[in-house]
Specification:
By secondary structure, the protein is an alpha+beta fold. It is built from four helices and three strands. One of its GO terms (molecular function) is iron ion binding. This is SUF system NifU family Fe-S cluster assembly protein.
Length: about 150
């Protein structure tokens, strides 16, 4: 597939997650809840996660922001469901490497739609948009582990 066709496909995937976000909403009952914002561009997110039996049973988000920020939150909430917290943190580290344009372990996890965000690495000002939900997930899991 040519680079232009791949870029177009990636843009379509990002816009699909932005316009039709997966896991948007809130859980009822007790959850890990993290509020984060990116003051540089105004993105804000509230991430909720349910951790049951040593795995992330579900993740939901609400918030406002650019297409990259909200699409990334949609993709992340899908990707971490069913993972152990340490696996989700490892996936977040791989995502961070991808965002920084570093080599990353493509074999460890099937990133699926998340790979559509790799072009963000070309735009340093947008990296914080793409990583906001991931940073919220990291904070929530670290806080949960420490409690």
């Amino acid at each position: 597939m040519s680079s232009n066709n791949l870029d177009t496909l990636y843009r379509q995937v990002i816009m699909d997650h932005y316009k039709n976000p997966r896991n948007r909403g809130e859980f009822e009952g007790e959850t890990l809840t993290v509020n984060m914002n990116n003051p540089t561009c105004g993105d804000r997110i509230q991430l909720q996660m349910k951790v049951e039996d040593g795995k992330i049973a579900g993740a939901k988000f609400v918030g406002e922001g650019c297409s990259i920020s909200l699409a990334s939150a949609s993709m992340m909430t899908q990707a971490v469901k069913g993972l152990k917290p340490e696996e989700a943190l490892e996936m977040s580290s791989i995502f961070s490497d991808m965002m920084l344009g570093k080599d990353y372990d493509e074999e460890r996890f099937d990133l699926g739609d998340i790979e559509a965000l790799q072009g963000v690495a070309k735009f340093p000002a947008r990296i914080k948009c793409a990583t906001l939900a991931w940073k919220a997930m990291e904070k929530g899991l670290h806080d949960h582990h420490d409690s």
